[in-house]
Specification:
- The complex is a heterodimer of chains A (123) and B (491).
- Helix content of chain A is 72%, strand content 0%.
- Chain A is mainly alpha-helical and 123 residues long.
- With 491 residues, chain B is mainly alpha-helical.
- Chain B has a domain of 214 residues.
- Helices cover 77% and strands 2% of the residues of chain B.
- Chain B has 20 helices and two strands.
- In chain B, strands 1-2 form a two-stranded antiparallel sheet.
- The longest helix of chain B has 32 residues.
- Classes of the chains: A mainly alpha (123), B mainly alpha (491).
């Protein structure tokens, strides 16, 4: 029970991480790939936040009567990582818009077909 | 005053310059001048840094005056300075070359965006090489990667978009893997600072958490550097990106990722990681497959840019072989090849940029008889090709020499044979292009064209000249590489 409940966050992290990773690999739709990528990244965010927890610690705000605080550093790191994640998602979606304009589809397998048969490479 | 700030100026100046580039919306030349000046500034800064650290003392800089474990530390040692010189040097030369090539390949109203993205990439790559903080490294990794995806997508063909998207997906996976690795290390050591990690990692090096961290870091960085089975983003990204972008990326981005791998293995873990986890053997095996299989694949390409992209994957294999040998000579060869490969691939892709500038194609068949009309460009291509193969008096020979020495030191004859065999394959794929360009006639009715403009030829020949110069006078490159390798192995 200890390993199931005590490490509950980490189990969630692993499930989310693998789910996201699987979507990136298995889905042909580019939007779904981006969704998978975001889930994968969020799993890592949760992982960082979970490990900053200190048993019996409170939120890291200095106040009377509290001596144990959670580690604030991972939270700050993840703020940065979230910004990076937002930028990645934005750029990915922008590229998908352009791909839709040029190819008329956002299914990776169809595009691959068009690329292999439709046009000579490097013209 | 300024000398104390040297370790940060080459990162911060391009970073500030990038938004300034947005002001040159109507003046592509203005944006180019900005990028050019900043690139040469970073080169000057990095040469000054190399001079300072060549005494053996590393330079440290505390950002915002926050002391090291709490604040972010920038730390430039021999290896970092050497890499910073490679990146800023290639940046300076490609910018000199860029103006006309970019005007020919990127729509006029987007040129200012290209230079903005270039400056961000430059800042990111230099930041990776400078920072002494593992999480800060991730931030720079993503700054450079995100702007790289944009630069790739600026290519003229629509396939540039899909190439950029696939690169984005794999690149983000790689960066996230890296973050997981850093998180696992932080969990065990409570620090992100590299100097602190060096002291605290040995105690916990045997734990499963750290082993998992090493695995995540290796795969993550492997994705970024084009390690053999996860290199699939690389050929398309190189093929469809604008010529200048390809030359800059091929010469710098993968090298910086290799540098990160060296930092992790040899600085953070002091090489001890190889005893607990056989990453060196795995890398060695993959690299051997890479140098043979990817060179063979290159032979069958009709697009010369793609041919050179596959050859890049093979060449990265040489660097990784050197690194995974874990001897001073091996490491010297690996680090040396970082520099030398940047020179030869830079020169080759710039030559292809000239070809594309004139005939709007880089297909082998379209290059028939090109040597007669563009003698200087094709001569540069041939010299770069000889260097790639490893003919004496070029830098390629120097790297291969040290690599073979390192394998023979270990008496691994089959490995030496594999390296020589893959060089023979390089002869074949380079010869295919050279034969078409020199011994075939220009097709009847082809548009008459002249040599590429001087503003493109001169920077290209600067790189070609460097290929020959550093092939003859090896003191600077080999000396620096060996000193850096000795520091890594000894410390």
């Amino acid at each position: 029970m200890e390993t199931v409940i005590g490490l509950f966050n980490y189990w969630i992290v692993i499930v989310l991480m693998m789910a996201g990773f699987y979507i990136v690999i298995a889905q042909e739709n580019m939007i779904k790939k981006m969704v998978g990528l975001s889930i994968f990244q969020v799993a890592v965010f949760v992982f960082y936040i979970s490990m900053s927890n200190v048993f019996g610690g409170t939120a890291p705000i200095a106040a009377e009567g509290f001596t144990r605080y959670s580690n604030p550093l991972p939270h700050v790191l993840i703020l940065t990582a979230i910004v990076v994640g937002v930028a990645t998602t934005a750029l990915g979606l922008a590229l998908i818009v352009r791909i839709k304009e040029e190819f008329g589809t956002i299914e990776d397998d169809q595009i691959r077909d068009m690329e292999e048969h439709g046009e000579e490479s490097g013209a | 005053m300024i000398s104390a700030n040297l370790p940060i100026l080459h990162v911060i100046v391009p970073l500030i310059g990038a938004p300034l580039g947005l002001m040159f919306r109507r003046s592509p030349t203005g944006a180019w001048l900005l990028a050019l000046i900043i690139s040469w500034f970073t080169l000057a800064d990095s040469l000054a840094l190399l001079l300072i650290v060549s005494g053996g003392e590393a330079v440290s800089y505390e950002i915002g005056d926050w002391a090291a474990p709490w604040g972010i530390e920038y730390r430039v040692d021999m290896l970092a300075a050497y890499l910073i010189v490679i990146v800023s040097g290639i940046g300076a030369v490609t910018m000199l070359y860029a103006r006309q090539s970019v005007e020919a390949e990127i729509p006029r109203d987007r040129i200012y965006l290209f230079y903005t993205m270039y400056l961000l990439t430059l800042s990111g790559l230099l930041g990776i090489a400078t920072t002494g903080d593992t999480f800060n490294l991730f931030v720079f990794l993503e700054i450079s990667s995100l702007s790289t995806y944009v630069m790739v997508s600026l290519g003229a063909e629509r396939r540039a978009l899909t190439a950029a998207f696939r690169y984005l997906v794999l690149g983000t996976l790689g960066a996230t893997f890296y973050v997981i690795g850093v998180g696992l290390m932080y969990q065990m050591t409570g620090t992100l600072n590299m100097a602190d990690l060096v002291n605290r990692l040995p105690e916990v090096a045997e734990t499963r958490t750290i082993l998992a961290a090493v695995a995540f870091l290796t795969v993550g960085i492997g994705l970024k550097l084009g390690l053999f089975p996860v290199h699939v983003w690389l050929p398309n990204a190189y093929t469809y990106a604008p010529s200048v972008v390809t030359a800059f990326l091929a010469a710098t981005a993968t090298k910086v990722a290799v540098y990160v791998l060296v930092r992790i293995y040899y600085t953070l873990f002091k090489g001890g990681v190889f005893e607990t986890l056989p990453v060196d053997e795995i890398l060695l095996a993959l690299s051997i497959v890479a140098i043979v299989a990817m060179s063979a694949v290159a032979i069958f390409q009709t697009n010369v840019k793609r041919l050179l992209a596959y050859s890049s994957v093979a060449q990265i294999g040489y660097m990784l072989i050197g690194i995974s040998l874990a001897t001073i000579t091996g490491l010297t060869a690996g680090i040396l090849h970082l520099f030398n490969h940047a020179l030869m691939k830079g020169a080759l892709f710039l030559a292809l940029g000239c070809v594309f500038f004139r005939i709007r194609s880089v297909n082998v068949d379209d290059m028939a008889g090109l040597a007669k009309v563009m003698p200087w460009t094709m001569a540069a291509f041939v010299t770069g090709g000889l260097s790639l193969i490893g003919i004496p008096l070029t830098v390629g020979f120097v790297s291969k020499w040290y690599l073979i020495l390192a394998t023979l030191e270990k008496e691994w004859w089959p490995l030496a044979a594999a390296i020589l065999f893959s060089s023979l394959l390089a002869v074949i794929y380079m010869w295919r292009v050279i034969e078409v360009a020199y011994f075939r006639e220009r097709p009847a009715g082809a548009v008459s064209i002249g040599e590429a403009p001087l503003a493109m030829l001169v920077p290209m020949w600067v790189l070609v000249g460097a290929n020959v110069y550093f092939g003859i006078d090896t003191d600077l490159t080999v000396g620096t590489a060996r000193a850096a390798a000795a520091l890594l192995m000894g410390g």
